[in-house]
Amino acid sequence: MPHLSAAINPDRGRAGNGVRDLLIRLTLEKLQGKARALRSMLGNYYRRSSKKPFALLGTRVCQSLIEQFTGDLRWHPQRDPMQRSMGSASDPCPVCAVLKKAAGERMTSLPGETSVTSVLREEVATSQGFCGRHAHLLCHLVEAQSAGAAVAAFYLELSERTIAALQCELYSPSRNAPAIQGWVRSAMRLAGNRSVAAESWESQFDQGFACPMCRFEANSEYQAIIGFTARLADPAFRESYTATDGLCLPHLRMALGKTDMEGKVFLAGAARDKVASLLHLVREYMRKHNWHFRDEPKFPEEQEAVMRTIRFQVGQPDCL
Amino acid sequence: MLDFSAIQLKSSFEHQGCPLCYLRHKDVACHIYGVLYEYVNDPDVRDSFVASLGYCRDHAWQQQMTEMGRCKDVLGTGTMYESVLQQNLRGIEQFIATLHADDTRTGWLSRLGGKSRTTQPDSYNHSTTGEQVNLPFGLSTGGHCRVCEVSDEGDEPSTHS
């Protein structure tokens, strides 16, 4: 969808009306086919009213819909379990750890049937589903928990709104107006009181995309930073903090903005010690790769130094 | 006759899923591997790498995984990050020096009954809270992830094709 939007947007793409129509028609066909299949599977599932897991085929259709909405991440190495295991890192930044736990719990609860409230569905539909990162996490969860029905319901609703918006774009009489704006306006006309579809298209592609899970993570991150800086005055907390790898750089920046002068001096001092130690270890790692020093023992902390450096610079890997 | 990007696009149709997403990931993987293979010690590449304090989260881990997967070590990544760590260290030391200078000035001014002035040249704007924290380069970045820029540049011709 992001690429389709870029291709048919006259400000970005160079596609003429004919090509634009063709692209929209092809997308519509695929989307309608998937939505039809998903609708019938969901109907069967709810009719049975049993506790059996959602059909595997439905889960697959749901996953392909998720990919259609968020872009395809299957070739990203972090989505490959083998590659992920190489990047797994222990002893993370405390804020990253809190965040990972909170986001994990929230995400795990999403596919559960009880979480399908109208508010949540509306929220997901407004934001045009989840961002790529969270959508693919959802894919994994759906498969692992065999609980695709709730997610399928989310994405079915989203597909229906999108189909309406795309059809409106295709058959709109005012074809000379810029495509996206026309699309959004016509979707608004068609939707009437359901103007959410139009707004969400606009917000996703024109004004930035606010995935509900990203919003949740940002909020949790903020709370974790507040909690962390509030506890910095405690000497025992400081002592245990200095024994760890400390905050990663993105969270260090945030914490420095939320703490007082004493806290800033402490955090900066701890970061300096940590960076100096990492720098020494990375240099040792590099030196021992030299032929002349090949006989010197290679210590585990030196072997892990580069991974710890990356963890310090950017935080935890995106473990799905 | 098809041009090069059209041929690439056509070959991407053989894969399942969005062809542009496939090309984007392929471009990113090629760029990261190319840098590791040939440009680890290139001054321009290193400059832009240090300016953005390495890559963004996704691409930083992708770089580490690529090298670990292909070479079974992370010497190239480590070599590049050594410069980033040096810059981090300089930035943190500058920040600590500024804090001490501020502290001294605050002490002076508070004794005189005045207020301290805490304006520094660089500033970092926290996106979630909107708060302004003055951080020198090394603690805050001076550029965007180069791999993200490359993949955005690569998206344009594919979209047009």
Keywords for this structure?
heterodimer, A: 320 residues, mainly alpha, elongated, B: 161 residues
Number of strands of chain A: 0
| CA radius of gyration of chain A | 24 Å
Strand order of the largest sheet of chain B: 1-2
**H/E element sequence of chain B:** HHHHHEEH
Counting helices, strands and paired strands, the structural category of chain B is mainly alpha
- Helix proportion range of chain A: over 70%
Strand content of chain B: under 5%
- The coarse overall form of chain A would be elongated
Instruction: Spell out the helices and strands of chain A N to C.
Output: HHHHHHHHHHHHHHHH
Q: Could you tell me the radius of gyration of chain B in angstroms?
A: 22 Å
Low-confidence stretches of chain A: 80-89, 181-209
Number of strands of chain B: 2
- Indicate the multimeric state: heterodimer
Class from secondary-structure proportions of chain A: mainly alpha
Net shape of chain B: elongated
Major sheet characteristics of chain A = none
Give the chain pair forming the largest contact, with residue counts.
A-B, 55 and 59 residues
Separation of the first and last Cα atoms of chain A: 23 Å
